[in-house]
UniProtKB/TrEMBL annotation:
Organism: Propithecus coquereli (Coquerel's sifaka)
GO terms under cellular component: cytoplasmic stress granule; nucleus
InterPro entries per UniProt: MCRIP (IPR029428)
Protein name per UniProt: MAPK regulated corepressor interacting protein 1
Keywords: Cytoplasm, Nucleus
Membrane-crossing residue ranges in chain numbering: none
Family of the protein in this entry: Belongs to the MCRIP family.
Gene: MCRIP1
Length: 97
């Protein structure tokens, strides 16, 4: 049996690691994965471009913030997470260990 593209697999080496696995330079991404990432990236760039245009006053109504009319009570204590800060802290913690 031959495969058209390499497939990665998880192999247990006997060691337990509590931190999440970080992507390595040898990690292989399929063409479908790369296409999905490119699609999402380009779509988000379009949203940001429209938002900048709207904020500069050159165009109106391109991007609209969704706000629920009746807030969900279970989200009352929700606090947004700064993903960039979280990633930076995790990277620093990994370097210390």
């Amino acid at each position: 049996m031959t495969l058209s593209s390499p497939v990665s697999r998880v192999v247990y080496n006997g060691k337990r690691n509590s931190s999440p696995r970080s992507p390595s330079s040898s990690e292989i991404f399929t063409p479908a994965h790369e296409e999905n990432v490119r699609f999402i990236y380009e779509a988000w760039q379009g949203v940001e471009r429209d938002l900048r245009s709207q904020m500069s006053g050159s165009e109106r109504g391109l991007v609209e913030e969704y706000v629920e009319k009746v807030p969900n009570p279970s989200l009352k204590t929700f606090k947004p997470i700064d993903l960039s800060d979280l990633k930076r802290r995790n990277t620093q913690d990994a370097k210390k260990s």
